[in-house]
Amino acid sequence: MSGYKNILELNGDLNKIDEKIRNIDLYNGVNDLAVEKINEELSVVNEKIRSTNMANKLRPIIKNIKVFGRLIQGVAPYVIVAGLIFGAQSILFDEVPFVRQNQIKTAHHEQIIDNTGIISDSITYDVKPMCPPNYLEYRTNWQKKDDGKYYQTTKKYYGINDYIDEIRELLKDPNANYDELLGRASNIEHKIKTEDEIAKEDLEEENRVELVYHYIDDTDIKLSIQDEDDNSLFSSVYLVVTFLACIPVFSWRMFESKYSFSDYLEEYKELYKKVDIKELKRLFDEEKIKVEKINRQRPSFDTPIVYLKNRTI
What we know:
- Strands 1, 2, 3, 4, 5, 6 and 7 form a 7-stranded antiparallel β-sheet that branches.
- This protein is an alpha+beta fold.
- The chain contains 8 helices and 7 strands.
């Protein structure tokens, strides 16, 4: 029950008690039971006023709890969505938005081996290094045909992981037939150029075979702090994904659930508004004084009337 309904009810009780007091005729005989009844009713009213006063002190606390709960109810769907995306990104990418972490990076090697030996071995470090596909590239030398033009054929073989050791051995043989080991080339490219279009050193080059081989060395690791730009980009992606995911949640909240924080806030303000009980206390004190006056003025031959107990409100 709201505070104002309590006030109206207590005012009505006091009005009824006042009417009963005015109906007592001191000189035509006082009904002791009637006076005792009034005393009891005043005691009840006194307890109600005490309860109302206590509730009055609790109203701001209850209102704040209700408002906070309603606020939590409002933001909860968005917090849940943001939390799920945060967790998913952290698990899938081993990174945390807005926090630069220490990272263990593993070495990724890319070796290029030709028929003369290893010509390069580049190393990069990454948190989760991925190996591009290994392949073997066989490139013939430039061969001049009857038309005066130069022709070159380049073959690429993929799916060679099971033949790496055999390929290393074949690289030592200038006459090796890679089709017999690896089957038909995955990609065949034919080039036709004039002599002016080819560098002199390329014209003199023999058949060339290159094995491009990738591997990860788990024993070669580095500990480093995450790059600030990488974390900023990762955090920006998180914010954009979260924003987009919250759009349908917002639409559902607006058009389906009919949730309105402002409407409930106004309702709570009215429902849990503090009420002024000073006037109520004054009316109660007046009725109490009237009863005490009746007790003092009643004829001495009557049975003593029970006084209203003085209780602090």
